[in-house]
Amino acid sequence: MQVLASKIIVAGTGGTIAGRAAASADNIGYQAGSLSVGDVLQTLPRQAMDRLVEQGVYTSWEDVAQVDSKDMGPQVWALVLARLRQWLADLEVRAVVLTHGTDTIEETAWLLSTLLETHKPVVMTCAMRPATAWVPDGPQNLLDALAVACDPQARGVCVVASGVVHAAQWVQKVHPYQLDAFSSGDGGALARVEEGQVRWFWKNEEKDHFSIDINREPAIEFIVDNRSPWPRVEVVFSHAGATGHGVDALCEPREGFEPLRGLVVAGTGNGTVHEAMDQALRRAHGRGVLVWRCSRCVNGQVVHAGGSLDTRAKDSPPALWPAVALPPFKARLAMALTLMGQRV
Ligand code: SIN
Hints:
The protein is of the alpha/beta class.
């Protein structure tokens, strides 16, 4: 019989789940990341924690960071990645629950799932209402995340919110206010948490994962060593009336700015790009900037993306920019990791 390790680390990075408002009736005007994750854990009912103990599980907690996730970036990712690697290598640790702001949780989840090759669960969770709200959603989400962390079928990085378990590959925040703010779109949810039980639809590893030749080890080394700056990759959107002026401006060298290394263009529909923007992208490519394309549509991905992704800007631009089957901000991370893997 497999004996599961007994320790679950609850690690905090901030967000609304650790947010505090001046008035309990205020669900919007609060300071994200003001409480320790230890304080958030304290809000869970005693009986719920006792049940964990009855299952032979004990928790310990640590604040890795306390930020509003709109400001998430390389420095916090370096800390999170380094700590996760230590925890996951510890035989006593069964799983990690990682709290995070909702605004960029999908980016951190994708980054971690791409870089960490782990079977141990890394269960991310969050909240739409601050901890001080009359009816906060954070405690329920945290309880659900602990249920997933304890579940023997849980694997790898996922996001738990509003009773739904999402794969890092698919999850996106799709609503700025309502409690059920996340969707896995076409991919569908991995599971639901019902009365503390996890009902699985998929195993995380069975999910259709986007794969790209990221040189993981150099990229991890780059991030954990907190080398900065990251290769500069920007996202631009194609739209009716686009001019491409923004692309030209991004390519201009500016004192104190890293030279632009890559552009992800979030195209219309199936990844189409306005002709004026396309011309600007060709000028950017001529300056050595790598260009990838994805779709600005919330659901789905570019169909017949075709071929492998160029990972270096070639001499002549392709007839069609290589397409990546990810939403724009995850595609941006994918390109940055690819460039990191080349540079080290
Ligand atoms: C944040 O992303 O840190 C603030 C918003 C939230 O968590 O809902």
